[in-house]
Amino acid sequence: MDSKAAGSPRRQGRDFIARHGETVFNIAGRLQGNHLHTPLTRVGFAQADEMGRALRAELGAKPTLTLWASSTGRALQTLAVICEHLELDWHQAKTDPRLVEIGMGSWGGRYYTDVVAEVGPVFDPVHQMLAPAPDGEVYHQIVERVSGWLADTDGDPGDRLVIMHGISSRVMRGVMTGAPDIPALGAPAAPGLPQGSVVMIEGGVETVVHTGTGYSPA
Length: 218
Fold this sequence. Notes:
Helix content: 25-40%
CATH topology: Rossmann fold
Order of helices and strands: HEHHEHEHEEHEHEEEE
Largest sheet: 6 strands, mixed
Radius of gyration: 16 Å
CATH class: Alpha Beta
Oligomer: single chain
Distance between the termini: 23 Å
């Protein structure tokens, strides 16, 4: 599959794409994947505050934004804090399961150390991406779902804010910026950024708005 062709046409308006804050799974060293409800830690809320302040400085109060989030609790919690800073109504946000993190199958929820002891390394230090679980989601499937979301929402008016996850956001940013496929993954991926980071993509060009302070393999 040609991941560049899979993306939607370049839309009018800017896309602010943020990675949620730290969660209880992160500090416990568990594989989070597409688990729906893994709450933010106090550090995670502080990271959301930092993103909110950065976006307030960039956009001002009550900006005209279409609000989107993955359907996970951690993304929605992060968005709620950001909305307070922007003076926007969190209840106007839209969610879509196609924005969730990579599905980790039977590895999901397990401790990294236990999985590594069983199957060997699960993290690629070169590309800083997780290996797919044997029964989990593979990278071209992430390309397909985020590309479908991009195509279906191409008519969103003006600017929008999207709260996502480390790996799925990297793949979507790669699709949006026309990044080349990583041969080992069969999918594009933009550079990794720490939790609590925000980028802006306009006309296929990405700019980092805020670099978070969180843990960042992905």
